[in-house]
Amino acid sequence: MSVIDSGQEHPAIASLSEMVRLRYGARELTGFPKIQARQMLAGGHKSRFRGRGMDFDQVRIYQPGDDVRSIDWRVTARTEVPHTKIFSEERERPILVISDLRSSMFFGSQRLKSVVACEVSAALAWAGLAANDRAGGLIFGQQEQMDVKARRSHHAVLQFIHGLQEYSEKLLDIQQAEGPQPDRFSLAEILEEARRFVLPGSTIFIVSDFHDLNDDCERHVFELARHGNLNFCQIFDDIEEQLPPPSLYAVSDGQRQTLLDTSNNKLRERFQQAYAERGLRLRKMSEKLSAGLLPFNTSDNVLTVLRKAYGKRRSKARGN
Protein backbone atom coordinates (compact mmCIF):
# COMPACT_ATOMS: atom_id res chain seq x y z
CA MET A 1 0.00 0.00 0.00
CA SER A 2 1.42 3.41 -0.98
CA VAL A 3 1.62 6.40 1.32
CA ILE A 4 -1.26 7.93 -0.64
CA ASP A 5 -3.47 4.85 -0.27
CA SER A 6 -2.88 4.80 3.48
CA GLY A 7 -4.10 8.37 3.77
CA GLN A 8 -0.68 9.69 4.82
CA GLU A 9 1.20 12.44 3.03
CA HIS A 10 4.87 11.94 2.24
CA PRO A 11 7.07 15.08 2.09
CA ALA A 12 8.69 13.79 -1.12
CA ILE A 13 5.32 13.52 -2.89
CA ALA A 14 3.25 16.48 -4.01
CA SER A 15 0.14 16.77 -1.84
CA LEU A 16 -3.05 16.29 -3.81
CA SER A 17 -5.09 18.20 -1.23
CA GLU A 18 -2.66 21.14 -1.30
CA MET A 19 -2.78 21.32 -5.10
CA VAL A 20 -6.58 21.33 -4.97
CA ARG A 21 -6.55 24.12 -2.35
CA LEU A 22 -4.40 26.26 -4.65
CA ARG A 23 -7.51 26.90 -6.77
CA TYR A 24 -8.69 29.45 -4.17
CA GLY A 25 -5.43 31.39 -4.12
CA ALA A 26 -5.25 31.28 -7.91
CA ARG A 27 -8.41 33.40 -8.09
CA GLU A 28 -6.43 36.30 -6.62
CA LEU A 29 -4.11 36.35 -9.65
CA THR A 30 -6.22 38.95 -11.44
CA GLY A 31 -3.38 39.94 -13.78
CA PHE A 32 -2.92 36.38 -15.06
CA PRO A 33 -1.63 35.58 -17.59
CA LYS A 34 1.07 38.07 -18.56
CA ILE A 35 -1.01 39.63 -21.37
CA GLN A 36 -3.20 42.48 -20.12
CA ALA A 37 -6.74 41.29 -19.55
CA ARG A 38 -9.58 42.81 -21.53
CA GLN A 39 -13.34 42.73 -21.29
CA MET A 40 -14.71 39.21 -21.73
CA LEU A 41 -15.97 38.47 -25.22
CA ALA A 42 -15.14 35.14 -26.81
CA GLY A 43 -12.11 34.98 -24.50
CA GLY A 44 -10.29 37.04 -21.96
CA HIS A 45 -7.28 38.41 -23.81
CA LYS A 46 -6.46 40.40 -26.90
CA SER A 47 -5.32 38.01 -29.58
CA ARG A 48 -2.33 38.23 -31.89
CA PHE A 49 -4.57 36.90 -34.62
CA ARG A 50 -6.23 39.35 -36.98
CA GLY A 51 -9.69 38.97 -38.46
CA ARG A 52 -13.18 40.42 -38.23
CA GLY A 53 -13.39 41.06 -34.52
CA MET A 54 -14.39 43.91 -32.25
CA ASP A 55 -11.31 46.18 -32.22
CA PHE A 56 -9.98 48.12 -35.22
CA ASP A 57 -6.27 47.44 -35.66
CA GLN A 58 -4.94 49.01 -38.86
CA VAL A 59 -5.51 49.81 -42.54
CA ARG A 60 -3.41 48.18 -45.25
CA ILE A 61 -3.47 47.81 -49.03
CA TYR A 62 -6.21 45.48 -50.23
CA GLN A 63 -4.96 41.97 -51.10
CA PRO A 64 -6.73 39.30 -53.19
CA GLY A 65 -8.96 37.27 -50.91
CA ASP A 66 -9.70 40.10 -48.44
CA ASP A 67 -13.34 40.61 -47.50
CA VAL A 68 -14.70 43.41 -49.71
CA ARG A 69 -16.95 44.45 -46.82
CA SER A 70 -13.83 45.60 -44.97
CA ILE A 71 -12.66 48.04 -47.66
CA ASP A 72 -11.94 51.47 -46.20
CA TRP A 73 -13.53 53.70 -48.83
CA ARG A 74 -12.23 56.97 -47.38
CA VAL A 75 -8.58 55.88 -47.52
CA THR A 76 -9.18 54.26 -50.89
CA ALA A 77 -10.63 57.52 -52.32
CA ARG A 78 -7.81 59.61 -50.87
CA THR A 79 -4.97 57.38 -52.09
CA GLU A 80 -6.71 56.00 -55.21
CA VAL A 81 -5.44 52.59 -54.10
CA PRO A 82 -7.82 50.02 -52.53
CA HIS A 83 -7.26 49.69 -48.76
CA THR A 84 -8.92 47.34 -46.28
CA LYS A 85 -9.54 47.57 -42.54
CA ILE A 86 -7.97 44.96 -40.28
CA PHE A 87 -9.45 44.10 -36.89
CA SER A 88 -7.83 42.41 -33.90
CA GLU A 89 -9.99 39.56 -32.75
CA GLU A 90 -10.84 38.68 -29.19
CA ARG A 91 -9.89 35.05 -28.58
CA GLU A 92 -9.04 32.91 -25.62
CA ARG A 93 -5.44 32.04 -24.84
CA PRO A 94 -5.06 28.35 -24.00
CA ILE A 95 -2.75 27.79 -21.03
CA LEU A 96 -0.13 25.05 -21.49
CA VAL A 97 1.98 24.12 -18.44
CA ILE A 98 5.07 22.00 -19.17
CA SER A 99 6.20 20.30 -15.95
CA ASP A 100 9.68 18.82 -15.58
CA LEU A 101 9.68 16.00 -13.00
CA ARG A 102 12.91 14.28 -13.99
CA SER A 103 15.55 12.98 -11.59
CA SER A 104 17.32 16.32 -11.04
CA MET A 105 14.10 17.66 -9.52
CA PHE A 106 14.31 15.07 -6.72
CA PHE A 107 16.49 17.37 -4.66
CA GLY A 108 16.08 20.08 -2.06
CA SER A 109 17.37 21.36 1.27
CA GLN A 110 14.01 22.93 2.24
CA ARG A 111 11.48 21.08 0.09
CA LEU A 112 12.06 18.95 -2.97
CA LYS A 113 12.16 20.85 -6.25
CA SER A 114 9.74 18.28 -7.68
CA VAL A 115 7.12 19.09 -5.01
CA VAL A 116 7.48 22.84 -5.58
CA ALA A 117 7.25 22.31 -9.36
CA CYS A 118 3.98 20.41 -8.91
CA GLU A 119 2.50 23.20 -6.80
CA VAL A 120 3.59 25.87 -9.29
CA SER A 121 2.12 23.86 -12.18
CA ALA A 122 -1.17 23.29 -10.35
CA ALA A 123 -1.53 26.97 -9.41
CA LEU A 124 -0.90 28.06 -13.01
CA ALA A 125 -3.51 25.64 -14.34
CA TRP A 126 -6.09 26.85 -11.79
CA ALA A 127 -5.27 30.47 -12.62
CA GLY A 128 -5.84 29.78 -16.31
CA LEU A 129 -9.23 28.30 -15.56
CA ALA A 130 -10.10 31.28 -13.33
CA ALA A 131 -9.23 33.57 -16.26
CA ASN A 132 -11.83 31.71 -18.35
CA ASP A 133 -9.16 30.13 -20.55
CA ARG A 134 -8.63 26.53 -21.49
CA ALA A 135 -5.95 24.92 -19.31
CA GLY A 136 -3.88 21.79 -19.85
CA GLY A 137 -0.37 20.53 -19.51
CA LEU A 138 2.46 18.15 -20.24
CA ILE A 139 4.24 16.21 -17.49
CA PHE A 140 7.66 14.65 -18.09
CA GLY A 141 8.89 12.12 -15.56
CA GLN A 142 12.11 10.17 -15.43
CA GLN A 143 10.87 7.52 -17.87
CA GLU A 144 7.35 8.55 -18.96
CA GLN A 145 5.29 11.50 -20.11
CA MET A 146 1.64 12.47 -19.79
CA ASP A 147 -0.41 15.04 -21.67
CA VAL A 148 -3.68 16.66 -20.66
CA LYS A 149 -5.45 18.47 -23.47
CA ALA A 150 -6.28 22.09 -22.71
CA ARG A 151 -9.96 22.47 -21.84
CA ARG A 152 -12.09 24.98 -19.99
CA SER A 153 -12.98 22.37 -17.41
CA HIS A 154 -12.33 21.64 -13.74
CA HIS A 155 -12.06 18.01 -14.74
CA ALA A 156 -9.09 18.78 -17.00
CA VAL A 157 -7.22 20.61 -14.22
CA LEU A 158 -7.99 17.84 -11.73
CA GLN A 159 -6.71 15.28 -14.25
CA PHE A 160 -3.54 17.35 -14.58
CA ILE A 161 -2.89 17.63 -10.82
CA HIS A 162 -3.60 13.92 -10.32
CA GLY A 163 -0.90 13.33 -12.94
CA LEU A 164 1.49 15.64 -11.10
CA GLN A 165 0.94 13.77 -7.85
CA GLU A 166 1.35 10.40 -9.59
CA TYR A 167 4.60 11.40 -11.30
CA SER A 168 6.10 12.84 -8.12
CA GLU A 169 5.30 9.56 -6.38
CA LYS A 170 6.89 7.59 -9.23
CA LEU A 171 10.02 9.70 -8.83
CA LEU A 172 10.24 8.63 -5.19
CA ASP A 173 9.55 4.97 -6.04
CA ILE A 174 12.32 4.90 -8.65
CA GLN A 175 14.85 6.39 -6.23
CA GLN A 176 13.94 3.93 -3.49
CA ALA A 177 13.55 0.75 -5.54
CA GLU A 178 15.96 1.05 -8.44
CA GLY A 179 18.41 3.74 -7.45
CA PRO A 180 19.65 6.36 -9.90
CA GLN A 181 18.53 5.78 -13.48
CA PRO A 182 19.30 7.87 -16.58
CA ASP A 183 16.48 10.17 -17.65
CA ARG A 184 14.65 9.18 -20.80
CA PHE A 185 14.18 12.81 -21.84
CA SER A 186 16.60 15.70 -22.10
CA LEU A 187 15.26 19.23 -21.75
CA ALA A 188 15.76 19.71 -25.49
CA GLU A 189 13.59 16.63 -26.18
CA ILE A 190 10.93 17.91 -23.79
CA LEU A 191 10.78 21.23 -25.61
CA GLU A 192 10.72 19.54 -29.00
CA GLU A 193 7.83 17.32 -27.89
CA ALA A 194 5.98 20.35 -26.47
CA ARG A 195 5.98 22.00 -29.91
CA ARG A 196 3.55 19.31 -31.07
CA PHE A 197 0.98 20.36 -28.45
CA VAL A 198 1.19 24.15 -28.57
CA LEU A 199 -1.79 25.87 -30.16
CA PRO A 200 -1.27 29.29 -31.83
CA GLY A 201 -1.78 32.07 -29.31
CA SER A 202 -1.14 29.86 -26.27
CA THR A 203 0.37 31.08 -23.02
CA ILE A 204 3.17 28.62 -22.28
CA PHE A 205 4.80 28.00 -18.90
CA ILE A 206 7.92 25.82 -18.62
CA VAL A 207 8.40 24.67 -15.01
CA SER A 208 11.90 23.24 -14.55
CA ASP A 209 15.29 23.69 -12.93
CA PHE A 210 16.79 24.03 -16.47
CA HIS A 211 19.89 22.12 -15.37
CA ASP A 212 20.59 20.87 -18.91
CA LEU A 213 19.77 24.06 -20.81
CA ASN A 214 21.87 24.15 -24.00
CA ASP A 215 21.94 25.36 -27.60
CA ASP A 216 19.44 22.73 -28.76
CA CYS A 217 17.02 23.94 -26.08
CA GLU A 218 17.30 27.51 -27.31
CA ARG A 219 16.36 26.46 -30.83
CA HIS A 220 13.19 24.75 -29.65
CA VAL A 221 12.35 27.60 -27.26
CA PHE A 222 12.51 30.10 -30.13
CA GLU A 223 10.04 27.95 -32.07
CA LEU A 224 7.70 27.80 -29.06
CA ALA A 225 7.89 31.58 -28.68
CA ARG A 226 6.72 32.03 -32.26
CA HIS A 227 3.40 30.40 -31.37
CA GLY A 228 2.58 31.97 -28.04
CA ASN A 229 3.44 33.93 -24.92
CA LEU A 230 6.37 32.14 -23.27
CA ASN A 231 7.23 32.05 -19.55
CA PHE A 232 10.02 30.31 -17.63
CA CYS A 233 9.43 29.15 -14.05
CA GLN A 234 12.85 28.28 -12.62
CA ILE A 235 12.83 26.03 -9.56
CA PHE A 236 16.03 26.21 -7.52
CA ASP A 237 17.45 25.48 -4.08
CA ASP A 238 19.90 27.52 -2.01
CA ILE A 239 22.45 24.70 -2.03
CA GLU A 240 22.53 24.79 -5.84
CA GLU A 241 23.52 28.44 -5.70
CA GLN A 242 26.22 28.01 -3.06
CA LEU A 243 27.66 24.99 -1.28
CA PRO A 244 27.00 24.74 2.48
CA PRO A 245 29.62 26.08 4.94
CA PRO A 246 33.08 24.47 4.76
CA SER A 247 32.99 21.00 6.29
CA LEU A 248 32.75 17.31 5.42
CA TYR A 249 29.25 16.23 4.36
CA ALA A 250 27.99 12.72 3.67
CA VAL A 251 26.23 12.67 0.31
CA SER A 252 24.46 9.84 -1.48
CA ASP A 253 22.91 9.10 -4.88
CA GLY A 254 20.60 6.53 -3.32
CA GLN A 255 23.02 3.61 -3.62
CA ARG A 256 26.52 4.88 -2.95
CA GLN A 257 27.68 7.28 -0.26
CA THR A 258 30.76 9.48 -0.15
CA LEU A 259 32.10 12.54 1.64
CA LEU A 260 31.96 15.99 0.13
CA ASP A 261 34.62 18.45 1.30
CA THR A 262 33.09 21.91 0.88
CA SER A 263 36.19 23.61 2.26
CA ASN A 264 37.82 23.19 -1.16
CA ASN A 265 37.84 26.75 -2.52
CA LYS A 266 38.28 25.70 -6.16
CA LEU A 267 35.30 23.36 -5.88
CA ARG A 268 33.19 26.13 -4.35
CA GLU A 269 34.15 28.56 -7.12
CA ARG A 270 33.39 26.07 -9.93
CA PHE A 271 30.09 25.18 -8.30
CA GLN A 272 28.98 28.81 -8.01
CA GLN A 273 30.21 29.65 -11.50
CA ALA A 274 28.26 26.80 -13.09
CA TYR A 275 25.04 27.91 -11.38
CA ALA A 276 25.62 31.57 -12.29
CA GLU A 277 26.30 30.75 -15.94
CA ARG A 278 23.11 28.69 -16.22
CA GLY A 279 21.07 31.48 -14.65
CA LEU A 280 22.64 34.10 -16.90
CA ARG A 281 21.88 32.03 -19.99
CA LEU A 282 18.25 31.67 -18.96
CA ARG A 283 17.92 35.42 -18.26
CA LYS A 284 19.47 36.37 -21.61
CA MET A 285 17.16 33.96 -23.41
CA SER A 286 14.09 35.36 -21.65
CA GLU A 287 15.13 38.93 -22.50
CA LYS A 288 15.76 38.05 -26.13
CA LEU A 289 12.30 36.48 -26.43
CA SER A 290 10.51 38.99 -24.16
CA ALA A 291 9.53 35.96 -22.12
CA GLY A 292 8.51 35.95 -18.46
CA LEU A 293 11.01 34.62 -15.90
CA LEU A 294 9.76 33.63 -12.45
CA PRO A 295 12.29 32.16 -9.98
CA PHE A 296 10.93 29.87 -7.24
CA ASN A 297 13.18 29.01 -4.31
CA THR A 298 12.25 25.71 -2.63
CA SER A 299 11.72 27.72 0.56
CA ASP A 300 9.23 30.08 -1.13
CA ASN A 301 5.48 30.01 -0.80
CA VAL A 302 4.33 29.42 -4.38
CA LEU A 303 1.32 31.73 -4.22
CA THR A 304 3.37 34.55 -2.71
CA VAL A 305 5.67 34.54 -5.75
CA LEU A 306 2.75 34.35 -8.17
CA ARG A 307 0.90 37.19 -6.41
CA LYS A 308 3.93 39.45 -6.92
CA ALA A 309 3.80 38.70 -10.63
CA TYR A 310 0.05 38.63 -11.28
CA GLY A 311 -1.68 39.90 -8.14
CA LYS A 312 -3.67 43.05 -7.40
CA ARG A 313 -0.75 45.10 -6.05
CA ARG A 314 1.12 44.76 -9.31
CA SER A 315 -1.93 45.86 -11.28
CA LYS A 316 -2.48 48.94 -9.08
CA ALA A 317 1.17 49.90 -9.34
CA ARG A 318 0.82 49.92 -13.09
CA GLY A 319 -2.29 52.01 -12.91
CA ASN A 320 -4.58 49.25 -14.21
What does this 3D model show about the protein?
The protein has helices at residues 16-26, 73-79, 113-130, 154-177, 187-194, 215-227, 238-241, 265-289, 302-310, 312-317, and strands at residues 45-51, 55-61, 83-91, 95-100, 135-140, 145-151, 202-208, 228-236, 248-252, 257-261, 292-297. With 320 residues, it is α/β, with parallel strands linked by helices. Strands 6-5-4-7-8-11 form a 6-stranded mixed beta sheet, sandwiched between helices. α1 (16-26) crosses α3, α3 (113-130) runs antiparallel to α4 and α5 packs parallel to α6 (215-227). Mean pLDDT is 84; it is low at 1-7, 35-54 and 314-320.
Distinctive features:
alpha/beta; 10 helices; 6-stranded mixed sheet; elongated; 39% helix; 2 domains; 320 residues; Rossmann fold
**What portion of residues is helical?**
25-40%
Strand % is: 15-25%
Number of strands: 11
User: What is the string of helix and strand elements?
Assistant: HEEHEEHEEHHEHEHEEHEHH
Rounded to an integer in angstroms, the radius of gyration calculated over CA atoms is 23 Å
Distance between the termini: 51 Å
**Biggest sheet, strands in spatial order?**
6-5-4-7-8-11
CATH fold call of the largest domain: Rossmann fold
Sheet bearing the most strands, described?
6 strands, mixed
| Fourth CATH level, the homologous superfamily of the largest domain | von Willebrand factor, type A domain
The backbone outline, from C-alpha atoms, is: elongated
CATH architecture of the largest domain: 3-Layer(aba) Sandwich
> What structural category characterises the helix and strand content?
alpha/beta
CATH class of the largest domain: Alpha Beta
Number of helices: 10
